[in-house]
Amino acid sequence: MWIRQAVLEGSTDSLLHALERAPHAARAHPTSEHFLPLLVAAGAAASPAPATVLDGGIRHGVLAMESYVFGEHIELAQEVSHA
Asked: Is residue 48, in this structure, part of any structural domain at all?
């Protein structure tokens, strides 16, 4: 959630220092190649870049599968529950 919040707030400083500051960063990103693509994508976006989170859920209890769309805010349709 820490990284997601930094992306949504457009906090460049937080993202650049996330591996040192974010709670559980070492566990979530055991090596930098797990995290650096996010910085590349954020840096390639227009500044300041609104972002949209595509929530992919959590796999195996620890692996976040979310993705980000930079450069525009997209209103996502809510999933319909079929009970």
From this structure: yes
pTM for the full model?
0.75
- Residue among 33, 45, 42 at smallest CA distance from 15: 42
Domain range for residue 61?
2-70
C-alpha 20/C-alpha 12 separation (Å) is 14
Write out the two tokens for 44.
Answer: 């390639």
- Count of domains for the chain: 1
User: Is 42 part of a structural domain of the chain?
Assistant: yes
- Decide if 38 contacts 46 (C-beta within 8 A): no
Taking 60 as the threshold, does the pLDDT of residue 79 lie above it?
no
* pLDDT tier, 21 (very low <50, low <70, confident <90, very high otherwise): very high
Residue 48: asked if its preceding bond is cis (omega within 30°), the reply is yes
